[in-house]
Amino acid sequence: MRFQANRDVFSEAVSFAVKLLPQRTTLPILSGVLIEATATGLILSSFDYEVSAQTEIVAEIEEPGKVLVSGRLLAEIASRLPNAPVRFSTENSRIKVSCGSASFTLLSMPVEEYPNIPQVSTQSGLVPAEEFAAAVAQVAVAASRDDVTPVITGVQLEINENSLSLVATDRYRVAVREIDWDPGSNTAKETITALVPARTLQEVGKTFGHSGVISVSITNSDDRELIAFTANKKTVTSLLIKGNFPPVRRLFPETVDNYAVMNTADLIEATRRVQLVLEREAALRFTFATDGVTLEAVGSEQAQASETIDAILSGTETVVSLKPQFLLDGLSAVHSEFVRISFTKTENPNKPGPVLITSQTSREQAGADSYKYLLQPNLLLR
């Protein structure tokens, strides 16, 4: 096997192929990148039985072949090569990578022991790449990072005829966003759901965010439910998480009369300042009144902080205690100058319900997007 490729193109392809590989794997062979030199170009693939990545690039193929090499080592080498064409050749079990005056010799891994890369042939539909990437960034932050309950470590994709909803929760908050969905030639009317690991979805959003359109395929073969994302000769596949996602949509109120509107950046900066005196896991106290919103933090005996910012209140004065980082996650996902914080009710009039965070185009006009972030108040300080 022998080929020559552009350094930047080759380095980017290797980086993409190894990005989703786990830092540690029980089978060393799964840390490899499979490189195939064919008549049409160069194909680089990785697979750890759960997630796969594959990309095809242009290269001058002098001798076709297939080789498996340590992925992260090759990625580090490729990223530091001098500005010259990369020459790649194999002889027996050794791989030679040279670029300019730099030269590396690596050991190959046994190709015959490497698992087959999943292939997804049917297309379920298309999504606009920028919108999808933005929606993933907004929603995935609410997914749980606790592997004890795998079903809430994912983002639930719910596909209807012309829309795709993304939903995530970690029990303390819920995030939802809806974007356009083009079913293409797929005329099926039933709702399709897919529970995708949040980490994988975040990498897909970052990688494919500027690709124009992303093709999404969901398939069920050999008892393996897979989802595939394809754009610009790059494909990522992932096993779906098995289990029933909790019915969190019913937690969102249809209407809320009691809410406050304020400048998003002002609230973010005030929260970051006031939380400095807090001990870990402590909550901030927010008092929403007609003259603005007051943030209060009580840390140790010596450390206290408070700040008031402008706000427009509709309804009654409300006091809630919220974990600052959870609030900041929601505020950072609101892509508008102003934000609306709505106060839901519970059966106990002295106990506030979850707060609902949505975008606000201006002080008077609600935002145009469908992003919603529901945050459970921390009641420890009441």
How much helix is in the residues?
A: 10-25%
Q: How many beta-strand segments?
A: 26
How far is the first residue's CA from the last residue's CA? 69 Å
Kindly estimate the percentage of residues that lie in beta strands according to DSSP. Answer: 35-45%
- Counting helices, strands and paired strands, the structural category is alpha+beta
Strand-helix topology:
Layout lengths: L1 E4 L1 H12 L13 E7 L2 E7 L3 E7 L2 E4 L1 E6 H9 L6 E6 L2 E6 L2 E6 L17 E4 H12 L13 E6 L3 E7 L3 E8 L11 E6 H11 L4 E9 L2 E8 L2 E6 L19 E5 H11 L9 E6 L2 E7 L5 E6 L2 E3 L3 E5 L1 H9 L5 E6 L11 E6 L11 E4 L7
Antiparallel strand pairs: 1-5, 1-7, 2-3, 2-6, 3-4, 4-17, 7-8, 8-9, 10-15, 11-12, 11-14, 12-13, 13-26, 15-16, 16-17, 18-22, 18-24, 19-20, 19-23, 20-21, 24-25, 25-26
Helix pairs in contact: 1-2, 3-4, 5-6
Brief write-up:
The chain has 382 residues and is α+β, with helices and mostly antiparallel strands. The chain has helices at 7-18, 71-79, 129-140, 198-208, 264-274, 324-332; strands spanning 2-5, 32-38, 41-47, 51-57, 60-63, 65-70, 86-91, 94-99, 102-107, 125-128, 154-159, 163-169, 173-180, 192-197, 213-221, 224-231, 234-239, 259-263, 284-289, 292-298, 304-309, 312-314, 318-322, 338-343, 355-360, 372-375. It is 17% helix and 41% strand.
Description:
This protein has 382 residues and is an alpha+beta fold. 17% of the residues lie in helices and 41% in strands. The chain has six helices and 26 strands. It has helices spanning 7-18, 71-79, 129-140, 198-208, 264-274, 324-332, and strands at residues 2-5, 32-38, 41-47, 51-57, 60-63, 65-70, 86-91, 94-99, 102-107, 125-128, 154-159, 163-169, 173-180, 192-197, 213-221, 224-231, 234-239, 259-263, 284-289, 292-298, 304-309, 312-314, 318-322, 338-343, 355-360, 372-375. The strands form four sheets. A nine-stranded antiparallel sheet has the order 14-11-12-13-26-25-24-18-22. α1 (7-18) packs antiparallel against α2 (71-79) and α5 (264-274) runs antiparallel to α6 (324-332). The longest helix has 12 residues, at 7-18. The protein is elongated. The chain starts with a strand and ends in a 7-residue tail after the last strand.
